[in-house]
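Recall that a protein's primary structure is simply its ordered list of amino acids. Everything else, from secondary elements to tertiary packing, is in principle encoded there. The following example makes that idea concrete.
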Amino acid sequence: MKLLQPEHPAHAHLRSVRTRFLLPLFLLAVSMAAVSVGAAFATGSAALRDAEAAAHALAVSSSGVIRDGNDPAAQLPKDAEFAFIDTHGMVLRGSARFMPGTRLADDALLTEVLSRKDGAATLKGEDGVRRVFGFTAMRDGQTGYAVMDVPLSAAFAQARSALLSWSLIGALLLLIALWAAASLGDFLLVHRIHLLADAMRAVASGDLDAEAGLVRGLGELDEVTVMFGQISDKFKKTLDTTETTVHKRTVELEFNKDVAELDKARVEALLTSVGDSLLATDTEGKLTFMNKEAERQLGYASRELVNQDIAAVLRLTDEKGTDISPEMRPTAVALKTGQPAHAPGFPKPWYFVRKDGTHFPAQITVSPVLVGGRVAGAITAFRDITAEMEFDRRKSEFVSIASHQLRAPLSATKWLADMLRKGDAGPLVGKQQELADKMFEANER
């Protein structure tokens, strides 16, 4: 079931404006229509009186025609009937509706004729049709009455024409009033709405004083205009405040930008001066900074690698030359966990591959950069440990050689001691055997 929707305010405004123009014009039109109807009825009453007078006049003239022995039918108007009756109501002569030798069928008419002798009356005939009757007593020695009747429809033909004319005039005036009220209301309202829309467009374009030119004087639209004026004033104040705030923030941003650039320059200078090789990456693992020592170690210029994925441009392998997968690299681990990460060291370190294809073992440490507890990037510090690896190799060789050289005399001493205690050089007695056994056992340790 669809709920009734509230009337839109614009429709209410339009209806109100129309009503203000429609009501007086409508009352004027109704008044004129009432005057028209009254005039039509007055015309009808006058027409009835005129018809009765005309019928009486026809009766008088017909009585003279009958008196002269002439037939009055030739002088009657269209649809009129005549009859000449005696004092008892018997028809002596008459037109088609009044048959000679018959008694007058209209009792009411007969009563009027016999009682009044001379005059006119509007009565309903025996056929049910209202008629205008005129009658008069015969004169000059003749007895009886001349009766003339005219159908009411014929008598009121002129009245009906007048009534129709006045009714049409009243209806036309009413329609004109309705159209004028609606059109004038619409014109004034639409005109005001257009002015208001133009002012709104001007305000939207930056002309905040356009609202001052709006006219007042149409009730609810004045409320809309006042509300628009209030909105314009608030918008002006908000715009002024916004401009002040934007200017202030712009100054602050410019100052902060200068401070940030200064801090960045200081940090870069500090990192450049560090003896170890340093690489800086963002949260996506893209290289953002590379100091001079790193350029020297890797053989790349900083501009060749900046803004590129470090895993894609700097190869990292194990001691067998196998590439380390991107997710296993210390940079990826530090960015993911937010904790420092290290590459394996001795005895099996990872190797960086230079631009020329050569490689070197590196001690690698990656530290995440945390801002507000969130990872904002990472700093990779590494150094070439080729010298340390070579020193370790030579130390191992020296220890191996020294151990071998030290073990060679001992082996001979052990072999001779074993021969002595077994009696290969002759049997040992007493204390000799005890010393030979101790010498052999000492070499076994």
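The mean pLDDT is 75. Residues 76 and 326 are 128 Å apart (CA to CA).
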